[in-house]
Amino acid sequence: MFKANLTSATIFFFLGFSSYPKVEVIIFVLCLLMYLIALLGNIILISITILDSRLHTPMYFFLSNLSCLDISYTSSAFPPMLINFVSGKNTMSFSGCAAQMYFSLAMGSTECVLLSMMAYDRYVAICNPLRYPTIMNKRVCVHIAAGSWVTGCFTALVETVSVLQLSLCGNSVINHFACEILAVLKLVCVDISMVQLIMLVITILLVPMPMLLICISYVFILSNILRISSVDGQSKAFSTCAAHLTVVVLFYGTTLSMYLKPSAVDSQEIDKFIALVYGALTPMLNPIIYSLRNKEVKAAMKKMLIRNSLVLS
């Protein structure tokens, strides 16, 4: 059997959703719509937080970072897939595949860390409201965001480099719509136990550990909310946390089902649809969830629309 390093492969071929020819066009249309909505929604959310001075707070600073991550993540995977579908080529160069793998891992890993930091921000805001401006000052927020990005980018680099050094079995056909790391590993014909160990350690550090921090934060948050005597105060506190919790459940639920599922459960077809959920559906829903659940965002959007209508008139 012919063996060569992944780096020696010049072109990769994608099977995509060719196993479902009758619904392939429907999947394409849905992916296009989800990508455009995700792109538009997150750009609007970033613009609002920049233009409206009332949203210059730690919560919206982190939310802007989350929107940047969602835009970067979806843009790394879906435009190439959509272009391949239209052109009918379903191919990608080695450098393009390596870049796509790295950026999707980096953005996903960064989001894991950032969501836990957003939970900590909510914890400080609700449990220590008087000290909140001091604890979560501008410098701390920038350091937290930068730390999240650096952590995600570094762990993605380690995973990507470790995979690209492995040997192919002469087959460069990827049973996926993108250069997803688990799908690429299926092409390897050498022992991947070391790579799997590296991925397991990184996954544990980036998924269960942040989830634990989120759970601990919300235990304290819930206990403090229940002590609030005012019904309006409780409702406002719950509303503030509901959007973040919804996003956490969507993101971590799909991530856990993808990367920490039992080895006996190995279906690449299921993995493709899971990848669609956390790659397109979640980034599309994030700005919608935060907009619908947040009066401040609604007010800022209304203000921006009125300002634009006055300018146009």
Counting helices, strands and paired strands, the structural category is mainly alpha
Low-confidence stretches: none
Order of helices and strands, N to C?
EEHHEHHHEEHHHHHH
| Global Rg | 21 Å
Main sheet, how many strands, which sense, barrel? 3 strands, mixed
Helix count equals 11
Number of strands: 5
Oligomer: single chain
Q: Average pLDDT, to the nearest integer?
A: 84
Distance between the termini: 70 Å
User: What's the shape?
Assistant: globular
- The level of helicity is over 70%
SSE blueprint and pairings:
Blueprint (H helix, E strand, L loop, with lengths): L3 E2 L5 E4 L9 H28 L6 H30 L3 E3 H34 L4 H4 L2 H27 L2 E2 L4 E2 L6 H5 L7 H14 L1 H20 L3 H29 L8 H25 L2 H18 L1
Parallel strand pairs: 2-5
Antiparallel strand pairs: 1-4, 2-3
Helix pairs in contact: 1-2, 1-10, 1-11, 2-3, 2-10, 3-5, 3-8, 3-9, 5-7, 7-8, 9-10
Task: Give a summary of the structure in a few sentences.
By secondary structure, this protein is mainly α. The chain is 75% helix and 4% strand.
